[in-house]
Write a structure and sequence with these properties.
The protein is α+β, with helices and mostly antiparallel strands. It contains ten helices and eleven strands. Fe (ii) ion binds next to α6.
């Protein structure tokens, strides 16, 4: 039997659309903006653009396209992120030192790889089902980096005294969301994890049963207004609310508000991708660490949901919301009236859960370098669910597991209460 052709499952137009999206996101940035690494967790835009290209070159073109010539043999060192099996690399916290290659060379690299990927997708060789799966992984990998690119550039611009905007503030209706309501779920033995034949990451399976007690989740995200009450009640100054590591962190870092908030004569301001703006109490509170989310929940007499509760609560929600396609790139006030179901599950902000990022029962890493994609990060991180305002549409599922260390807060993170 003839193996299925790559083209049967990956359209050239799918490939081109994702690659074009990356360039569209980078387009508002100057060449200088694209070079900057404002802190160790941030990667320069130029590095993102090159690294996702290196992924296609390294894992698809070199092993599978006869006669393919690498664009530049040194790029493997510059643009390998964390693949030990592939070789040495530029230290992550020193990506900002890569003043060479230039943006133009990275653009030429992207064109070189795109031309070869078109040939591969058109005329592919070898085990084509494997190739199709790898092309899809490369495209979803690129979408992950599109989201990171926006989170990273937000940080870069926040460090610029001119406080430039990535793009002008769009019209954003702001209405008070009202108090949250609780949505009840029966407990029991509930199936968790991906089931189906569409793309999903390896960490979303295997599907398995989890026993849950009956629980409730809030029908909206916690807002800046809610957070201001926590702050006014001395939330950041009362150790009783905090995990020991959290208290040590806020004390050491002098945190007394979410990241990007700063006091002004007229009240709290917040750096956004639209520049510095007044804090809107109706909006979901963003850029909080796990420690802060946990402390707030305890102060509010509630807790964070487990990732299993979150997934069970999201199982019937539509995979639409304030994603990158809305072009707002900022969390929005809740858009629909309370109707007895959880709102804002998809988009707006990645929601912290109380679950450690761990393998599901029976999880196995794939053989080879791509086995390094997810599994090796399953320690000292927490799971976040639901995507955010920088997530590309089509890149989120109820089963999607994002993960960050407890102190991280430069990403679009928020919280929803549970009890
Ligand atoms: Fe990557």
């Amino acid at each position: 039997m003839t193996p299925p052709h790559v083209r049967d499952s990956v359209e050239l137009s799918d490939y081109q659309a994702v690659r074009d999206d990356t360039e569209r996101l980078a387009a508002p940035l100057s060449a200088e903006d694209q070079m900057i690494q404002s802190m160790p967790d941030v990667s320069p835009t130029k590095w993102h653009r090159a690294h996702i290209t290196w992924f296609f070159e390294t894992f698809l073109l070199v092993p599978n396209l006869p006669g393919y010539e690498v664009f530049d043999a040194e790029f493997g060192y510059f643009f390998n992120s964390y693949y030990e099996t592939v070789g040495e690399r530029q230290p992550r916290h020193e990506r900002g030192f890569l003043s060479r290659p230039s943006n133009d060379q990275v653009t030429a690299y992207r064109a070189h790889v795109d031309e070869a990927m078109v040939r591969l997708i058109d005329t592919g060789v070898g085990d084509r089902r494997d190739l199709a799966d790898l092309v899809r992984l490369g495209l979803h990998h690129e979408q992950q980096h599109q989201e990171l690119l926006l989170m990273d550039i937000k940080h870069v611009l926040s460090k610029n005294a001119f406080r430039p905007a990535y793009h002008p503030r769009p019209d954003m209706a702001s209405t008070p969301p009202g108090p949250h309501n609780w949505v009840e779920f029966d407990g029991g033995l509930i199936d968790i994890g991906y089931e189906g034949n569409d793309f999903h990451f390896d960490n979303e399976g295997p599907r398995h049963s989890v026993y849950m007690q009956p629980f409730e989740v809030a029908d909206r995200l916690v807002t800046c207004g809610d957070w201001l009450q926590f702050m006014a009640d001395g939330g950041y100054h009362e150790p009783i609310h905090w995990l020991s590591e959290g208290w040590a962190t806020i004390t050491r870092e002098n945190w007394d508000a979410p990241m990007y908030w700063e006091p002004s004569e007229t009240g709290w301001m917040v750096q956004t991708l639209h520049g510095l703006q007044p804090v809107d109490p109706n909006e979901p509170v963003a850029h909080i660490s796990y420690y802060e989310a946990d402390a707030y929940a305890r102060w509010a007499g509630a807790r964070l949901p487990t990732e299993f509760e979150w997934e069970h609560a999201a199982v019937d929600v539509e995979l639409t919301g304030n994603l990158a396609s809305s072009s707002v790139l900022h969390p929005l006030t809740v858009q629909s009236p309370s109707n007895g179901t959880p709102r804002q599950m998809i988009g707006d902000l990645w929601e912290w859960t109380s679950s450690s990022y761990a393998p599901y029962p029976g999880f196995e890493t794939a053989p080879g370098a791509v086995g390094e994609y997810n599994g090796k990060f399953m320690v000292n991180q927490y799971v976040l669910r639901g995507g955010c305002c920088a997530t590309p549409p089509g890149h989120i599922r109820a089963t999607y597991r994002n993960f960050f260390p407890a102190h991280s807060r430069w990403m679009f993170s928020g919280l929803r209460l549970a009890r």
